[in-house]
């Protein structure tokens, strides 16, 4: 058989070209996990935000970017899509704090400031963002207020559209002479906001009402906690049926059912290994698979992470154990998106300690990759 050489060469060229095009179309981008750390800066301008690349194979971190001209960026929150980072600014000052919006530059592993807005109150302590990424609620601790922001299409913040002020108290006079809003959460269905008032021993519920292009927190209701509890932080279970409140002053976690804007108390659980004269329970998170719950205890005699397994049918907790944080005052901690690592910010010892998480038992094993950073107080992570 006689072969047409020109046609043969042309067919080879076309085949190679098609393989090349197919390969380029199916080539997957390499994933990168970024770790964002917010810090107290001793109430003066300093290194408030650090951005690290986190290796999800080893648990090692590499510093990539620092914001060094900002004050008391003590709490941060990533948008649901991870494109934007929001941080409180000027917390614990005698004048109104602020909220800053940053664009996450993933290729360069850094963040760029978009804008800063007044938060409408004193000492912003917590930020929450709804699942659509359109609204942000800020909790002001010192004057007991909540502020609501609209997030613009470019990730920047509009001026606060609503500030709610609360006047209340409870039984521990050294800590509960006035309302202290410590945090807030959007409900799993995105229709409600629950705010946690340490000073009043109350969870304050609101409906997120959208009318004529505007949004507001309306139809308030109160869920009372046990006197002297000191509600601090809250986590909804991934299945959307349960919620868990960590109480700073009683050292307990309250378990709740959730349905259509209503929280129903199940029971509570002590977070410390033994009775203390002062409790300082701080942060709370649930593993991505929903099987385990973790909370941090900040001294004075015990710096630990408590580990509970979660009954996903009843919402009840079962104690697994306690893990030393290998540092003092674990104000905040985070679980990486894969669920394989847990990182603890030990604020008083200036370290972030990295643990490998056993996804079957929920237990933690310390890795030798501590991150040295001054006064770490907030951890956010995202895989891109």
TrEMBL record:
Biological processes per GO annotation: glucose metabolic process
Domain of life: Bacteria
InterPro entries xrefs: Cycloisomerase_2, Haem_d1_sf, Lactonase_7-beta_prop, WD40/YVTN_repeat-like_dom_sf
Entry keyword set: Carbohydrate metabolism, Glucose metabolism, Signal
Keyword Ribosomal protein assigned: no
Gene3D superfamilies assigned: YVTN repeat-like/Quinoprotein amine dehydrogenase
Name the record gives this protein: 6-phosphogluconolactonase
Source organism of the structure: Polaribacter aquimarinus
